[in-house]
C-alpha cells in the first residue's frame, strides 16, 4: 500500500496512473505578467534524444520556440529542422505567402492567413549563371550570339580575316622588306601561345631564348637562305638548353623536348615564308600565290563541309572535318591555283593544279597536326587573341605546313632568278 501524495491526494509509486492528466490552460483574462501563454518548460524538453526518454511528459505546445503556429502534421517537420539547422534564425518570408505569423512580421508586411499552410522556400542552390537573368517587360531576355555549324562567329571571323589579309598584302605591295617585321611579330606571338599551351602538360619551356632565337631564325632565312635557316634552328635549341640549365635538373628533359618542338614548329617552318618573300624579282608573287592557295583551301573546305559534310575525316582529332570538306578544299585550291599561277608566272594550268592540290593537302595536315596537339593538351584554342578565330596559331597552322611545300614546288616549277 503506497502512501498518498500530500500535494495531489493521489497514490504514489506503482499505483499512480501511467499518463498524468495535463493541467488546463490559464485563462486569457488574467493580468499581464501573471501567466504566460507558453507554459514554463525545463531543459528536459530540449535535451538530446537519449535524455528525452526519461523526461516528464509535457503538454503539446501550439507554438514552437520561434513563435510560429504549429498545425497538425507540422510538429515533426519543425522539430527535425529546428534541432539540426540553426542557420536561419530570422523569420522566413515567402514572395507568394508572406510572413507566417503576425508577431514576426514587420510593420506593413503581408500576413499569412491562418487557414493556409506554411511552405518554406527552398534555399538557393548557388549563384545564377553568368549571362542569365530573369526576363520581364522592362528587362528582355539576353540574346545569345549565334554561331554557324562550324562553330565560329562568322561576322567576327570574316572581319579579323580581312584585317590579317590587309596586314600581309599592304607591306608586300608597298615595301616588301616591311614584310619581315610582320613575320617576326607573328613568330613571337606564335611561340608565346605554344609555350603557354604546353604548360598545361607540366612542361615549362623558357620563353625568352625561344622568342629571341625564333626572330633570329626568321631573319637569317630572309637574308641568307636555307643554310642560315638550319643554323638559326640549331642556335635556338642550344640557347634554350643553356638557359634551362640555370633552373636545375628537375624536369629538364621534358622542358627541352617542349622547347625543341616549339622551335621546329613555329620559327623553322615560318622561315620558309621569309625565303619565299625574299626571292629576288618575284618574291611577293610567290608568297601571295601560297597564301591565296591556303585561303582557297580553307574556304572551299569550310563551304563544302558545312553544306555536304557527312563522313568525319578524323573524328578523334577534329570531329568537324569531313571527307566532303577535304574534297572541297582540294578542288578549290586546284582550280584557283591553276588560274593564279598561269597569270602570275605563265605556268601551264596543270602544273598550277598540282601546286594547288599539294598546298591543300599540306594545309589540311597542318590543321590536323595542331588539332592533335590541342586535343592532347585538352584545349579548344591556343588563345582568345583573335575573335572568331581563337589564337594566332589557329590561323598559322595551315600556313606553316604549306610554305615549305610551296617553297620546294616553286623552286622546281619557277626557278629563282639570280
What key phrases describe this protein's structure?
52% helix, mainly alpha, 418 residues, globular
Describe this structure in words.
By secondary structure, the protein is mainly alpha-helical. It contains eleven helices and two strands; from the N terminus they run H-H-H-H-H-H-H-H-E-E-H-H-H. The protein has a two-stranded antiparallel ribbon with strand order 1-2. A hairpin with a 3-residue loop joins strand 1 and strand 2 (318-322). Helix 5 runs antiparallel to helix 6, helix 7 packs across helix 11 (393-413) and helix 9 (323-345) packs across helix 10.
Structural class comes to mainly alpha
Radius of gyration: 40 Å
- Name the helicity range: 40-55%
Q: Kindly report the spatial arrangement of strands forming the biggest sheet.
A: 1-2
Oligomer: single chain
- Average pLDDT, to the nearest integer? 76
| Unreliable stretches | 27-55, 75-95, 115-119, 141-150
Query: How far is it from the N-terminal to the C-terminal residue, by CA?
Result: 135 Å
DSSP helical segment count? 11
* Strand runs, count: 2
Strand content: under 5%
List the secondary-structure elements in sequence, H or E.
HHHHHHHHEEHHH
Largest sheet: 2 strands, antiparallel
Write down the overall geometry.
Answer: globular
